[in-house]
Fold these 3 entries.
Entry 1:
Amino acid sequence: MSLRLSTVILPVDRWHEGGRAKWQRAEELGFHAAYTYDHLSWRSFRDGPWFGALPTLTAAATATDRLRLGTLVTSPNFRHPVTLAKELISLDDISGGRVTLGIGAGGNGFDATALGQEAWTPKERADRFGEFVPLLDRLLTEGAVSQMGDFYTAEEARNLPGCVQRPRLPFAVAATGPRGLKLAVKYGQAWVTTGDPKLYEEGTPEQSVEALRGQIERLGKACAEADRDVANLDKILLHGFTPDRNRPLESVDAFVDFAGRHHELGFTELVIHWPIPNSDFAADQHAFEEIASEAATQLSY
């Protein structure tokens, strides 16, 4: 099976000052999908421009024709399933059914306290995620939903006519722990990982590969327990958070080597960051575009 190549475009540009051009160029380069982060602000970009994910994706949908679009990832940190479902159905309609929802439990970043709440503990995040995903699934597949949960309530929430994609737009669930993996297996059409964050600073690429191998093995066990074929679940690696850092983006050969090692693990899609100068995602734009246009032919192993 070929390894699909996608990109993630951070929402840091005004739409008419480079934003539109990046999404259109991503389609021209032949990327399978272009995603964006769904945050209110993020890490070192907090004091600079940062635009909303869903309005950005809506604009991208009107500026492109074939490119799949999505979030990597949305989380419960500042989202509610009822309002999110309505926006996703609208986006899926505007895009003609090209949307994938990347979704995760969230973390301790700026989003965790932006609405005035205390940051949730890992257990609280897992508890909320465990309620968020099933309710969102119902909201996107049923015409009217009422449900009272510990964290999220829907009262006659109506979402007609539903998604263009049936029975709903696909979920790409980010998870590494046992509870998250069960959600990915039950509700996901894809699984997402960034690798083992403990290895980013001092680990080696070889250690990272072994850690990812372990994650995929745990995913396989979760699939077996749920009587699901793990081969039917896409496996997405968001690049840039392993010890390799940006080295794979230095040349086509370097990237093909990186991609090959991870394709052998079972990954079906690699997502690389669109270069942003003077940031952790700085990379040579020419090399990046060369990878996008030339590496794809070498990824059909």
Entry 2:
Amino acid sequence: MDTHQPSTAPARSKADRDARLAVTVFPILVVLAGLAGFLLPGPIKAGAPAVPYLLGVIMFCMGLTLTPPDFASVAKRPWAVALGLVAHYVIMPGAGWVIATALALPPELAVGVILVGCAPSGTASNVMAYLAKGDVALSVAVATVSTLVAPLVTPALTLLLAGSFLHVDAGGMLLDIVKTVLLPVILGLAVRVFLRKAVAKLLPALPWISALVIAAIVAIVVAGSASKLVAAGGIVLLAVVLHNGFGLGLGYLAGKIGRLDHKARRALAFEVGMQNSGLAATLAAAHFTPLAALPSAVFSVWHNLSGAVVAAWLARRPLPEVSPAAPETAAITAQ
């Protein structure tokens, strides 16, 4: 997610192609993985113990994409980053609780929807912000900070909003997020700092590694609740579509209310509306039931489809303010 490379027209064109390929192939991979989990639940759900380690791989890849300038951008734009962070952790958890209550979801599904809302930003949000001609530097900053604070914020919000549905072990959840999210990200960042040249050669492969690993998590999660998927699938899809739609729309509105420019508003739409559904699925499976992880699996498919559609629509709408385009090619190859 390095946004500080020299910009050229050919590089931008290649980044566009890579980003469009990623958002086309990734949902297909996840859908195929979900089908495999549904049709072959027996052998696939045996991989459940590996899910936390698979998530660790994804977060390690995220850490590899980070650079010190990404953190410097937070200090340079504290208001915009703080607004994005607050919007993310207010809108999505709140929307999850409202939707779960309004649809009268069973406790396990209600907790699953709320847990998705309490997760940090999704790793594909930077790609969508790029395709939408949004502020990718802001997108990277908000995604990074939301991930780093997740060990404290995600368990606390889940306990607050989902505790009335099922027992929530906030302490155990905190430890799990530290082990599967924070430590791998820090390790990846350290490897990037000390082995910069070697990591640079791996950057183009990282999004595909992450995509394959997320697909594997989805397959395992779906396999775990395959027997209940037919009965619960419709209401879960409705909840996910509403949840993601509120996030995208209200995220953009938050940027508007905060008087951010149009590029920043586009970035916040995706930072609020796209979640780290892999983390939510991992926590749901570990602390609740396989059925509670189902909303995360469906969200993983849907938010990439909706994100790609919204990004394409925004990209065709001219920006009212014309400003020099920031080079973001590495941010795309890193996601």
Entry 3:
Amino acid sequence: MPDLATPLVAWYRENARDLPWRRPGFGAWGVLVSEFMLQQTPVNRVIPHLEAWLQRWPTPTDLAAAAPADAVRQWANLGYPRRALWLHRAAVEIRDRHDGIVPRDVDALLALTGIGDYTARAVAVFAYGDRHPVVDTNTRRVLARAIDGRSQPGPPSRRDLDAMAAVLPDDVETAAVVNAAAMELGATVCTARTPRCEVCPLQDRCAWLAAGRPDTGDDRRKQARYEGSDRQARGAVLKTLRDAAAHAVPMAEVVPDWPDPLQRDRAIDSLIADGLAEASDGMLRLPR
């Protein structure tokens, strides 16, 4: 396997974006919140929400003491609002199981609500400086192109962690930089649609570029269109609840002009099932 770590580290130290969670002293709680928010949400949308969230709830114990409805409301328009409930539940678990301190151990992190392989390792590496492979969508694309010669990565797999582990140097501090650098490269240079191979630090050792950048297909699951989707209907219902006085609305007044009443009702039912809304006495409200 070619040495990817050396050019990645040199490139990252010259080109890394100045992001809040990369600054010294940001803390494990801030890293954890940022990772929840960054799931399927662009960086530029996350930063103002992250700053407001941490100002309101600077520790897990602060969030755990709040009502779930407060977390859903503060989440605003970030999308995938179940993440707000999961983050609230994780904060309660951190308070009750770990004395209010975000755990360092990957298995302990994985046991928290809403945390998977990527987030657990991201906290352990970027907050605590431990040596683990961290793999997100951007990292997977860099590895697929540089090592496997594929234009796009395959579906997520446990093999991704093994592939990234093989790239990491033994030095713990440098390994953390390589993890961050691979993610940054995929986000800013080795992008999905318009990769800028001419400025890539891996251009002299990239299997995909050496093969002439062939289109090897993309067999990942495609996300459904948002416009007209159940996700859009759910978002409209939640916005109505967030904006309402006392965050409660008579059921008959929940987006009554939605073009598909059956879809609206389906959205309401799914929000109740997910714990994002409660229905009683003819009213729909955020969870108390």
